[in-house]
Amino acid sequence: MENYSRAQVLEQPSVCPFTNLSADTPEVRVKDGSKIRNLLRFALSRMEADARRAEEEGEEEGSRGGPEEAAGRPLCRQIVFSASGKAVSKAITCAEIMKRRLKNLHQLTKLTYSKVLEVWEPLEAAAGLDSLTVNRNLPAIWILLSKEQLDSAQPGYQAPGRYDALWAQAAGKEEGGGATGQRAGQRRKRGGGGGRGKGSGRPVGRSREPGKGQT
């Protein structure tokens, strides 16, 4: 493709795989250049009363207009995050932060593909090359977070996590590692005097005494 330049890119987003969603369920479309702070501000303002109050009081400066304008709307019971390509990891990060901020959230994840159409034109028209059309499939993800119970039999369902038990287990591992590190430090401390450093057993050099004939 060294003799071509990309002239046009058309993306056909995948269709939402979740059915029977209420009409007021917001969809947060995560892009590669989106800021997680702005995405979470909008999502939390739609599902959390405290975030809505902070938004209305102007504690955080939000963007005006467009889909991020959530003031005056009722709180939602569900929210959807969607992303494709490089933005998939960013959508997963937003969902994990939401689950830690709002407890007892049920999650349903679906993996799909979105089609991307690329048109490549030759760099030199006199070279006799034809334009090329390339079709690519990008991995896409759809994450549904709900305060209501979802169908646990569906693939991709995750029940609300017990974060207290998770952090307790992690803390126990850290304490065990700390004790091991302390014992190793004690061993190093006991054997620290055997090196080349200045120790108490090192002989002291002879003092210079005046020789014969010197005053």
TrEMBL record:
<dbReference type="GO" id="GO:0000172">
    <property type="term" value="C:ribonuclease MRP complex"/>
</dbReference>
<feature type="compositionally biased region" description="Gly residues">
    <location>
        <begin position="192"/>
        <end position="202"/>
    </location>
</feature>
<dbReference type="GO" id="GO:0001682">
    <property type="term" value="P:tRNA 5'-leader removal"/>
</dbReference>
<comment type="similarity">
    <text>Belongs to the histone-like Alba family.</text>
</comment>
<feature type="region of interest" description="Disordered">
    <location>
        <begin position="50"/>
        <end position="71"/>
    </location>
</feature>
<feature type="domain" description="DNA/RNA-binding protein Alba-like">
    <location>
        <begin position="27"/>
        <end position="114"/>
    </location>
</feature>
<feature type="region of interest" description="Disordered">
    <location>
        <begin position="172"/>
        <end position="215"/>
    </location>
</feature>
<dbReference type="GO" id="GO:0005634">
    <property type="term" value="C:nucleus"/>
</dbReference>
<dbReference type="InterPro" id="IPR051958">
    <property type="entry name" value="Alba-like_NAB"/>
</dbReference>
<dbReference type="InterPro" id="IPR036882">
    <property type="entry name" value="Alba-like_dom_sf"/>
</dbReference>
<dbReference type="InterPro" id="IPR002775">
    <property type="entry name" value="DNA/RNA-bd_Alba-like"/>
</dbReference>
<keyword id="KW-0539">Nucleus</keyword>
<dbReference type="GO" id="GO:0003723">
    <property type="term" value="F:RNA binding"/>
</dbReference>
<feature type="compositionally biased region" description="Basic and acidic residues">
    <location>
        <begin position="206"/>
        <end position="215"/>
    </location>
</feature>
<protein>
    <submittedName>
        <fullName>Ribonuclease P/MRP 25 subunit-like</fullName>
    </submittedName>
</protein>
<dbReference type="Pfam" id="PF01918">
    <property type="entry name" value="Alba"/>
</dbReference>
